[in-house]
Amino acid sequence: MAPPIKNGAIEAHLRRAREVLELAHSPLHRLEHTLHPYVTYAVLPMFAFMNAGVTVSTGGVDTVTLGVFLGLLLGKPLGVVGAAWLAVRVGLAALPKGVNWPLLCGVGLLSGIGFTVSLFVSNLAFEDAALQAQAKLGVLAGTVLAAVLGVLWLLVCTARQRASSVETRVR
Fold first, then answer.
1. Which sequence ranges are marked TM in the entry (predicted)?
2. Dihedrals φ, ψ of 143, to 5°?
3. Number of domains comprising the chain
4. By CB distance 3.0 to 4.6 Å, which of 34, 62, 97, 138 could disulfide with 134?
């Protein structure tokens, strides 16, 4: 007859079994299941809405200007921070000592600063001078706002870090 197993041991075995099962899935499978709700409830409805032929009014702002502006202000920071998060999560990279996620978000905001390449690509993408001007306006507005927000974000983050390090030294 086997000795009785205590409740704590059963819970430990179950936790270990869950960990082993989680590791049995590939990183791509885990990423797919993590992104599933976002894709289902945000990306697909937006895709369907945009492809339904519904006209979206931007209140006087040209769609090219708005697209370039949002691409620099939201797209680039999301791409930079998202790629870094994914690399850390998968184990390809680690945050350097002294770097935390709020600081990396500030760097992501600063990545929205785009002059030379953004202006060059807009000139290649649009042959019409009016569309090129709209794209340039989006680049300039997105760059200025990304720079201002990035600097302010980093100032707030570093001020908090300095304040917490001073509190730690005082104790």
1. 38-58, 64-88, 100-125, 137-156
2. -65, -45
3. 2
4. 62
Alpha-carbon span 134 to 140, nearest angstrom: 10
Distances (CA, A) of 45 to 42, 51, 52, 68: 6, 10, 10, 22
Tell me the average pLDDT across 103-131: 88
The per-residue pLDDT for range 57-69, each reduced to its tens digit, is 556 678 888 999 9
d(CA 154, CA 105) in angstroms, rounded, equals 9
> For residue 38, what are its two tokens?
């976002």
Are residues 97 and 27 located together in one domain of the fold? no
In one letter, which amino acid is 56? Answer: V
In the chain, the amino acid numbered 25 is H
pLDDT in tens, 10-61: 888 888 888 888 788 888 888 888 888 888 888 877 776 666 544 445 566 7
Shared-domain flag, residues 136 and 150: yes
The answer to pTM > 0.85 is: no
Identify the CA nearest to 140 among candidates 73, 74, 76.
73
Residue 121: give the domain boundaries. 57-170
In 3D space, the residue among 95, 104, 83, 80 whose CA is nearest the CA of residue 158 turns out to be: 104
